[in-house]
Specification:
The protein is mainly alpha-helical and 360 residues long. The protein folds into 3 domains: 18-113, Dna Ligase, domain 1 (2-Layer Sandwich), CATH 3.30.1490; 117-212, no CATH class; 221-355, no CATH class. Helices cover 48% and strands 7% of the residues. It is built from 15 helices and 6 strands. The chain has helices at residues 2-34, 59-64, 71-81, 99-107, 127-137, 142-148, 152-159, 196-211, 215-220, 225-238, 242-257, 265-271, 282-286, 311-318, 342-355, and strands at 45-49, 89-93, 117-120, 186-189, 327-330, 336-339. Strands 1-2 form a two-stranded antiparallel ribbon. A two-stranded antiparallel sheet has the order 3-4. Helix 5 (127-137) crosses helix 6 (142-148) and helix 10 crosses helix 14 (311-318).
């Protein structure tokens, strides 16, 4: 009986070992398949690695460009390969490359084809700030850039090519006609023959692409595209999270519907041509012009956008959160507090002052 039992146990262990081997072989097969080339297509595709990117964060870019089959198995390979640091730049890859081949190209410091001029505009920058960045990155002076995009003949040529640009930008009270229309993003330009028109049209092409999914909604709104971008530019500077942006937009719409002044300090800063780190004077707060919504006689939206907003703020302006709120205030930690009336609003401000976190 003991010999029979030992034989059965031995047979079971052998069977178990075979099962484990089969599973391992299957897993190896899956791994090899998922890290193999997507296709035989050798047409080049350029992947842009930006500052702050790493091998893991660009997984979605590789997947979106159909360069890898699986983000998961790409990351598993990275765990084993542990490639050298990733440099920002443009890399030429193709679908016929396996994951190991792709990583080899990315880890080769000589593979970067970034001979372009990279210009990054973050969300919420205004035209003057963007012009300074252009001056830093190119031979184009900020003043030259600003003058060009204020030229009416030039603006007429742009209006013919972009559906979202209208005669609204010609209002004489507007500081910079293209404010709000230059989409914040990272742009790459060939250094040869780089001029203002190339920069502006490249940005506007991107703006057109970003706004296209919302074109019908914008054109069907009771507000013009210019007004929607104006409202979005206020939302951009008043809130950080998507949730708060939708709520802020709702407050602004409530005030607009009831004929209230918007009373937003961010418009006062822009009206006074001051940065948000500077102190507003009493004359700044009471000055009445096309932008300052703190001026008691100004009802409605400013004459135009006060910065170049993100798609998140534009979506909030198109889809505000309905509420009974008419006031909001943010603390120094960017937390936004919403209230229904002036009494509640003043109480929140007093509390924030006591706690030393009032963003005055």
């Amino acid at each position: 009986m003991k010999k029979v039992r030992k034989f059965k146990v031995g047979k079971f262990l052998l069977f178990l070992l075979l099962i484990i081997i089969v599973i391992i072989l299957i897993m190896i097969g899956i791994y090899q398949f998922e890290t193999s080339p997507v296709s035989n297509n050798t047409n080049p595709k350029i992947i842009t690695v930006e500052e702050g990117d790493n091998y893991f964060t660009i997984a979605s870019k590789l997947k979106d460009q159909n360069l890898i089959k699986s983000e998961l198995f790409y990351k598993i390979y990275l765990k084993f390969a542990q490639p050298t640091s990733l440099l920002d730049g443009n890399y030429e890859l193709n679908e016929a490359m396996s994951v190991p081949e792709i990583v080899k190209v990315l880890s080769n410091k000589d593979s970067s084809k970034d001979n372009t001029i990279k210009i990054t505009f973050r969300e919420g920058l205004n035209i003057t700030q963007m012009a300074k960045i252009v001056e830093e990155k190119t031979d184009i002076k900020a003043e030259e850039f600003i003058n060009k995009i204020a030229d009416k003949t030039y603006l007429n040529s742009l209006i013919q090519d972009y559906w979202f640009l209208t005669d609204d930008i010609y209002n004489e009270k507007i500081y910079y006609p293209l404010e709000g229309y230059l989409f914040p993003d990272t742009y790459h330009f060939e250094p040869n023959d780089l001029d203002i028109d190339t920069i502006v049209r490249t940005i506007l092409d991107n703006t057109s692409t970003k706004l296209e999914p919302y074109k019908n909604q914008m054109q069907a709104s009771e507000y013009t595209p210019h007004q929607i971008l104006t409202l979005a530019s206020i939302v951009e500077l008043e809130a950080v999270t998507d949730e708060d942006r939708a709520k802020v937009a709702g407050v602004l719409y409530n005030r607009l519907s009831d004929g209230w002044s918007l009373g937003c300090d961010v418009t006062t800063y822009y009206a006074a041509k001051k940065s948000m780190t500077e102190r507003l004077t009493q004359s700044d707060l009471t000055a009445c012009n096309g932008y300052n919504t703190r001026c008691t006689s100004m009802i409605g939206l400013p004459v135009g956008p006060i910065d170049n907003p993100s798609i998140s703020s534009i979506k909030a302006a198109l889809n505000p959160e309905a509420s009974d709120y008419y006031y909001f205030v943010a603390d120094t930690n960017k937390k936004v507090y919403f209230t229904k009336n002036a009494k509640e609003h003043d109480r929140i401000i007093a509390k924030l002052k006591d706690e030393g976190v009032w963003a005055a």
